[in-house]
Predict the 3D structure of the following.
Amino acid sequence: MRAAVLHEIGQDKLEVLDDVEAVGFGPGRVRIRVRATGLCHSDLSAMGGVLPQPAPFVPGHEGAGEVLEVGEGVTRVKPGDRVVVCWLPACGACPACKRGQTELCLAGFMNAGTPNFRRPGGDVFGFAGTGTFAEEVVVDAGCAVPIPDDVPFDIAALIGCGVTTGLGAALNTADVEAGSSVAVIGCGGVGISAIQGARLKGAAEIVAVDPVASRREAALEFGATKAVSPEELPGAKQLVTGGEGFDYVFEVVGRSATARTAYDNTRRGGTLVVVGAGALDDFLQLNMFELFFDEKRILPSMYGGGDVLRSYERTIALWRAGRIDLSSLITHRVALTEINEALDQMRTGAALRTCIEI
Protein backbone atom coordinates (compact mmCIF):
# COMPACT_ATOMS: atom_id res chain seq x y z
CA MET A 1 0.00 0.00 0.00
CA ARG A 2 0.95 3.65 -0.27
CA ALA A 3 2.13 5.78 2.62
CA ALA A 4 4.10 8.99 3.09
CA VAL A 5 7.31 8.29 5.01
CA LEU A 6 9.84 10.54 6.75
CA HIS A 7 13.15 8.68 6.71
CA GLU A 8 15.08 10.86 9.18
CA ILE A 9 14.16 13.50 11.72
CA GLY A 10 14.96 16.93 10.32
CA GLN A 11 14.04 16.22 6.71
CA ASP A 12 11.45 18.63 5.32
CA LYS A 13 10.01 16.37 2.61
CA LEU A 14 8.06 13.13 2.77
CA GLU A 15 8.47 10.30 0.30
CA VAL A 16 5.29 8.58 -0.90
CA LEU A 17 6.08 4.88 -1.21
CA ASP A 18 3.99 1.94 -2.35
CA ASP A 19 5.86 -0.82 -0.52
CA VAL A 20 4.55 -0.10 2.98
CA GLU A 21 2.56 -2.67 4.97
CA ALA A 22 0.37 -1.93 8.00
CA VAL A 23 1.32 -4.39 10.75
CA GLY A 24 0.25 -5.37 14.25
CA PHE A 25 -3.23 -6.70 13.59
CA GLY A 26 -4.51 -9.13 16.18
CA PRO A 27 -6.67 -9.31 19.32
CA GLY A 28 -7.89 -5.92 20.46
CA ARG A 29 -6.76 -4.25 17.23
CA VAL A 30 -8.57 -2.67 14.28
CA ARG A 31 -7.54 -2.27 10.66
CA ILE A 32 -8.80 0.99 9.12
CA ARG A 33 -8.94 2.13 5.51
CA VAL A 34 -8.06 5.81 5.81
CA ARG A 35 -10.25 8.04 3.65
CA ALA A 36 -9.28 11.54 4.76
CA THR A 37 -6.68 13.05 7.03
CA GLY A 38 -5.81 16.57 8.04
CA LEU A 39 -2.34 18.01 8.31
CA CYS A 40 -1.75 19.32 11.82
CA HIS A 41 1.19 21.46 12.89
CA SER A 42 2.17 18.70 15.31
CA ASP A 43 3.10 16.60 12.27
CA LEU A 44 5.59 19.28 11.23
CA SER A 45 6.86 19.52 14.79
CA ALA A 46 7.53 15.78 14.88
CA MET A 47 9.28 15.91 11.51
CA GLY A 48 11.55 18.67 12.79
CA GLY A 49 12.31 17.00 16.10
CA VAL A 50 10.35 19.45 18.27
CA LEU A 51 8.07 16.63 19.39
CA PRO A 52 9.80 13.32 20.20
CA GLN A 53 9.05 10.60 17.66
CA PRO A 54 11.14 7.61 16.52
CA ALA A 55 12.00 7.45 12.82
CA PRO A 56 11.45 6.40 10.13
CA PHE A 57 7.78 7.18 10.57
CA VAL A 58 4.53 7.89 8.80
CA PRO A 59 3.16 11.26 9.99
CA GLY A 60 -0.54 11.99 10.40
CA HIS A 61 -2.81 11.60 13.41
CA GLU A 62 -5.93 13.54 12.39
CA GLY A 63 -7.77 10.97 10.29
CA ALA A 64 -11.01 9.18 9.53
CA GLY A 65 -11.99 6.15 7.51
CA GLU A 66 -13.82 2.86 7.56
CA VAL A 67 -13.13 -0.34 9.45
CA LEU A 68 -11.82 -3.19 7.31
CA GLU A 69 -11.22 -5.81 9.97
CA VAL A 70 -11.45 -6.21 13.73
CA GLY A 71 -9.45 -8.48 15.97
CA GLU A 72 -10.66 -10.86 18.63
CA GLY A 73 -12.37 -9.13 21.54
CA VAL A 74 -13.27 -5.95 19.65
CA THR A 75 -16.97 -5.21 20.10
CA ARG A 76 -17.40 -1.44 19.73
CA VAL A 77 -16.84 -1.40 15.96
CA LYS A 78 -17.32 -3.84 13.11
CA PRO A 79 -16.21 -4.01 9.48
CA GLY A 80 -17.85 -1.27 7.44
CA ASP A 81 -18.22 1.19 10.33
CA ARG A 82 -17.12 4.77 9.82
CA VAL A 83 -14.61 5.88 12.44
CA VAL A 84 -12.48 8.82 13.50
CA VAL A 85 -8.93 8.00 14.57
CA CYS A 86 -8.29 9.01 18.18
CA TRP A 87 -4.55 9.37 18.75
CA LEU A 88 -4.96 9.64 22.54
CA PRO A 89 -7.33 6.86 23.64
CA ALA A 90 -8.20 6.47 27.31
CA CYS A 91 -7.44 3.13 28.94
CA GLY A 92 -10.08 3.67 31.63
CA ALA A 93 -8.00 2.05 34.33
CA CYS A 94 -5.02 4.33 35.10
CA PRO A 95 -5.10 6.94 37.89
CA ALA A 96 -5.72 9.79 35.43
CA CYS A 97 -8.70 8.01 33.88
CA LYS A 98 -10.13 7.15 37.29
CA ARG A 99 -9.94 10.82 38.24
CA GLY A 100 -11.86 11.74 35.11
CA GLN A 101 -8.81 13.32 33.44
CA THR A 102 -8.81 10.97 30.48
CA GLU A 103 -6.88 13.46 28.32
CA LEU A 104 -3.88 12.76 30.58
CA CYS A 105 -3.94 9.00 30.02
CA LEU A 106 -0.55 7.78 28.80
CA ALA A 107 -1.76 4.58 27.15
CA GLY A 108 -1.84 6.15 23.71
CA PHE A 109 1.69 7.49 24.02
CA MET A 110 2.96 4.01 24.78
CA ASN A 111 1.82 2.98 21.29
CA ALA A 112 4.23 5.46 19.70
CA GLY A 113 7.16 3.19 20.48
CA THR A 114 5.71 0.19 18.61
CA PRO A 115 6.08 0.08 14.81
CA ASN A 116 2.78 0.38 12.93
CA PHE A 117 4.24 -0.33 9.51
CA ARG A 118 6.90 -2.35 7.75
CA ARG A 119 8.88 -1.93 4.55
CA PRO A 120 11.35 -4.33 2.92
CA GLY A 121 14.07 -2.30 4.64
CA GLY A 122 12.64 -2.65 8.14
CA ASP A 123 10.13 -1.29 10.62
CA VAL A 124 8.37 2.07 10.28
CA PHE A 125 6.60 3.86 13.13
CA GLY A 126 3.32 5.74 13.02
CA PHE A 127 3.22 9.24 14.49
CA ALA A 128 1.56 9.24 17.91
CA GLY A 129 0.90 5.54 17.51
CA THR A 130 -1.26 6.09 14.42
CA GLY A 131 0.20 7.34 11.11
CA THR A 132 -2.75 8.41 8.99
CA PHE A 133 -0.74 9.51 5.93
CA ALA A 134 -1.30 5.98 4.68
CA GLU A 135 -3.99 4.05 2.88
CA GLU A 136 -4.40 1.70 5.84
CA VAL A 137 -3.46 1.76 9.51
CA VAL A 138 -3.73 -0.78 12.33
CA VAL A 139 -4.49 0.69 15.75
CA ASP A 140 -5.76 -0.30 19.18
CA ALA A 141 -9.53 -0.64 19.30
CA GLY A 142 -9.75 2.43 21.53
CA CYS A 143 -8.31 4.54 18.70
CA ALA A 144 -11.21 3.69 16.38
CA VAL A 145 -14.17 5.79 17.48
CA PRO A 146 -17.42 5.19 15.58
CA ILE A 147 -19.14 8.18 14.00
CA PRO A 148 -22.62 8.61 12.50
CA ASP A 149 -23.04 7.99 8.79
CA ASP A 150 -23.97 11.64 8.11
CA VAL A 151 -20.54 12.93 9.16
CA PRO A 152 -18.28 13.22 6.07
CA PHE A 153 -14.81 11.77 6.36
CA ASP A 154 -13.11 15.15 5.92
CA ILE A 155 -15.15 16.71 8.73
CA ALA A 156 -14.55 13.68 10.95
CA ALA A 157 -10.81 13.92 10.37
CA LEU A 158 -10.72 17.48 11.70
CA ILE A 159 -12.64 16.40 14.79
CA GLY A 160 -9.88 13.86 15.42
CA CYS A 161 -7.46 16.56 16.60
CA GLY A 162 -7.51 20.24 15.65
CA VAL A 163 -11.16 21.06 16.21
CA THR A 164 -11.38 19.06 19.43
CA THR A 165 -8.22 20.72 20.72
CA GLY A 166 -9.27 24.29 19.94
CA LEU A 167 -12.91 24.04 20.93
CA GLY A 168 -12.02 22.18 24.11
CA ALA A 169 -9.48 24.80 25.13
CA ALA A 170 -12.27 27.39 25.22
CA LEU A 171 -15.14 25.20 26.42
CA ASN A 172 -13.38 22.86 28.85
CA THR A 173 -10.03 24.29 29.94
CA ALA A 174 -10.80 28.01 30.07
CA ASP A 175 -14.59 27.73 30.44
CA VAL A 176 -14.77 31.22 28.94
CA GLU A 177 -17.19 33.51 30.77
CA ALA A 178 -19.94 35.26 28.81
CA GLY A 179 -19.18 38.92 28.20
CA SER A 180 -15.43 38.48 28.62
CA SER A 181 -12.54 39.64 26.45
CA VAL A 182 -10.43 37.05 24.62
CA ALA A 183 -7.27 37.10 22.52
CA VAL A 184 -6.14 34.13 20.43
CA ILE A 185 -2.49 34.12 19.33
CA GLY A 186 -2.07 31.83 16.34
CA CYS A 187 -5.03 31.43 14.00
CA GLY A 188 -4.55 28.20 12.10
CA GLY A 189 -7.10 25.42 12.38
CA VAL A 190 -6.71 25.04 16.14
CA GLY A 191 -6.76 28.78 16.83
CA ILE A 192 -9.84 29.27 14.66
CA SER A 193 -11.54 26.48 16.60
CA ALA A 194 -10.67 28.24 19.87
CA ILE A 195 -12.24 31.39 18.43
CA GLN A 196 -15.42 29.47 17.62
CA GLY A 197 -15.41 28.05 21.14
CA ALA A 198 -15.06 31.51 22.70
CA ARG A 199 -17.90 32.76 20.53
CA LEU A 200 -20.09 29.85 21.64
CA LYS A 201 -19.40 30.74 25.27
CA GLY A 202 -20.53 34.33 24.69
CA ALA A 203 -17.24 36.25 24.75
CA ALA A 204 -17.93 39.91 24.02
CA GLU A 205 -14.60 40.66 22.33
CA ILE A 206 -12.41 38.14 20.52
CA VAL A 207 -9.15 39.47 19.09
CA ALA A 208 -7.38 37.20 16.61
CA VAL A 209 -3.60 37.63 16.39
CA ASP A 210 -1.65 36.20 13.45
CA PRO A 211 1.13 37.43 11.11
CA VAL A 212 -0.65 36.06 8.02
CA ALA A 213 -3.26 38.41 6.55
CA SER A 214 -5.41 35.63 5.06
CA ARG A 215 -5.68 33.95 8.46
CA ARG A 216 -6.69 37.22 10.08
CA GLU A 217 -9.42 37.66 7.46
CA ALA A 218 -10.61 34.10 8.05
CA ALA A 219 -10.69 34.65 11.83
CA LEU A 220 -13.21 37.47 11.37
CA GLU A 221 -15.46 35.14 9.40
CA PHE A 222 -15.34 32.54 12.18
CA GLY A 223 -16.31 34.90 14.99
CA ALA A 224 -13.39 37.15 15.89
CA THR A 225 -14.45 40.75 16.50
CA LYS A 226 -11.01 42.11 15.58
CA ALA A 227 -7.97 40.68 13.83
CA VAL A 228 -4.49 42.14 14.18
CA SER A 229 -0.88 41.34 13.39
CA PRO A 230 1.44 40.61 16.35
CA GLU A 231 2.81 44.17 16.07
CA GLU A 232 -0.71 45.55 16.43
CA LEU A 233 -1.56 43.59 19.58
CA PRO A 234 -0.55 46.37 22.04
CA GLY A 235 -2.94 48.76 20.31
CA ALA A 236 -5.75 46.20 20.38
CA LYS A 237 -5.10 45.60 24.07
CA GLN A 238 -5.43 49.33 24.73
CA LEU A 239 -8.53 49.69 22.58
CA VAL A 240 -10.42 46.63 23.86
CA THR A 241 -9.36 46.50 27.51
CA GLY A 242 -8.18 50.02 28.26
CA GLY A 243 -4.67 48.64 28.63
CA GLU A 244 -5.58 46.28 31.47
CA GLY A 245 -5.21 43.09 29.46
CA PHE A 246 -7.57 40.40 28.26
CA ASP A 247 -9.60 38.13 30.49
CA TYR A 248 -8.40 35.12 28.50
CA VAL A 249 -5.45 34.72 26.16
CA PHE A 250 -4.95 31.53 24.16
CA GLU A 251 -1.42 30.70 23.00
CA VAL A 252 -1.80 28.40 19.99
CA VAL A 253 1.73 28.50 18.59
CA GLY A 254 3.82 26.44 21.00
CA ARG A 255 6.75 28.80 21.55
CA SER A 256 8.02 30.44 24.70
CA ALA A 257 8.19 33.85 23.00
CA THR A 258 4.47 33.82 22.14
CA ALA A 259 3.60 32.35 25.53
CA ARG A 260 5.43 35.26 27.16
CA THR A 261 3.50 37.67 24.92
CA ALA A 262 0.29 35.92 25.91
CA TYR A 263 1.17 36.24 29.60
CA ASP A 264 1.96 39.94 29.23
CA ASN A 265 -1.38 40.57 27.50
CA THR A 266 -3.43 38.72 30.12
CA ARG A 267 -4.94 40.97 32.78
CA ARG A 268 -4.03 40.50 36.43
CA GLY A 269 -6.23 37.70 37.68
CA GLY A 270 -6.92 36.61 34.09
CA THR A 271 -6.27 33.29 32.40
CA LEU A 272 -3.53 32.23 29.99
CA VAL A 273 -4.38 29.00 28.16
CA VAL A 274 -1.41 27.19 26.60
CA VAL A 275 -2.66 25.17 23.64
CA GLY A 276 0.41 24.97 21.38
CA ALA A 277 2.74 21.98 21.71
CA GLY A 278 6.32 23.21 22.16
CA ALA A 279 9.82 21.82 22.42
CA LEU A 280 11.42 20.21 25.46
CA ASP A 281 14.26 22.75 25.45
CA ASP A 282 12.14 25.88 24.97
CA PHE A 283 11.65 27.44 28.40
CA LEU A 284 9.13 30.08 29.44
CA GLN A 285 10.67 32.51 31.92
CA LEU A 286 8.58 34.13 34.64
CA ASN A 287 9.94 35.81 37.73
CA MET A 288 8.60 34.73 41.09
CA PHE A 289 7.30 38.18 41.99
CA GLU A 290 5.08 38.56 38.93
CA LEU A 291 3.88 34.99 39.27
CA PHE A 292 2.73 35.79 42.80
CA PHE A 293 1.65 39.41 42.37
CA ASP A 294 -0.30 39.15 39.11
CA GLU A 295 -2.27 36.07 40.16
CA LYS A 296 -2.70 35.04 36.54
CA ARG A 297 -3.88 31.50 36.00
CA ILE A 298 -1.73 29.50 33.56
CA LEU A 299 -3.73 26.56 32.22
CA PRO A 300 -2.19 24.08 29.78
CA SER A 301 -4.78 22.42 27.56
CA MET A 302 -4.00 18.89 26.41
CA TYR A 303 -6.22 17.70 23.54
CA GLY A 304 -9.01 20.06 24.58
CA GLY A 305 -8.72 19.38 28.29
CA GLY A 306 -11.67 17.03 28.67
CA ASP A 307 -13.13 13.64 27.89
CA VAL A 308 -12.26 13.13 24.23
CA LEU A 309 -15.21 10.89 23.34
CA ARG A 310 -17.66 13.33 24.88
CA SER A 311 -15.93 16.16 23.05
CA TYR A 312 -16.35 14.33 19.72
CA GLU A 313 -20.07 13.90 20.39
CA ARG A 314 -20.48 17.54 21.39
CA THR A 315 -18.64 18.76 18.31
CA ILE A 316 -20.82 16.69 16.00
CA ALA A 317 -23.96 18.01 17.71
CA LEU A 318 -22.77 21.62 17.36
CA TRP A 319 -21.84 21.05 13.71
CA ARG A 320 -25.22 19.49 12.91
CA ALA A 321 -26.99 22.43 14.55
CA GLY A 322 -24.97 24.93 12.52
CA ARG A 323 -23.40 26.43 15.64
CA ILE A 324 -19.86 25.82 14.40
CA ASP A 325 -18.44 25.87 10.88
CA LEU A 326 -16.11 22.99 10.12
CA SER A 327 -16.25 22.71 6.34
CA SER A 328 -14.82 26.21 5.86
CA LEU A 329 -11.78 25.24 7.93
CA ILE A 330 -10.68 23.09 4.98
CA THR A 331 -9.10 25.63 2.66
CA HIS A 332 -7.03 23.21 0.56
CA ARG A 333 -7.39 19.63 -0.64
CA VAL A 334 -4.64 17.41 -2.04
CA ALA A 335 -4.04 13.77 -2.88
CA LEU A 336 -1.54 11.72 -0.89
CA THR A 337 0.94 12.05 -3.75
CA GLU A 338 0.80 15.83 -3.26
CA ILE A 339 1.54 15.69 0.47
CA ASN A 340 4.59 17.94 0.21
CA GLU A 341 2.41 20.69 -1.24
CA ALA A 342 0.30 20.42 1.91
CA LEU A 343 3.43 20.80 4.04
CA ASP A 344 4.34 23.97 2.18
CA GLN A 345 0.81 25.34 2.60
CA MET A 346 1.07 24.93 6.36
CA ARG A 347 4.59 26.31 6.63
CA THR A 348 3.63 29.49 4.78
CA GLY A 349 0.33 29.88 6.62
CA ALA A 350 -1.62 29.68 3.37
CA ALA A 351 -3.91 26.96 4.73
CA LEU A 352 -6.11 26.78 7.80
CA ARG A 353 -6.38 23.05 7.26
CA THR A 354 -5.38 20.97 4.27
CA CYS A 355 -7.34 17.76 3.78
CA ILE A 356 -5.39 14.89 2.28
CA GLU A 357 -7.85 12.67 0.44
CA ILE A 358 -6.62 9.09 0.36
User: Anything to note?
Assistant: Residues 225 and 279 are 31 Å apart (CA to CA).
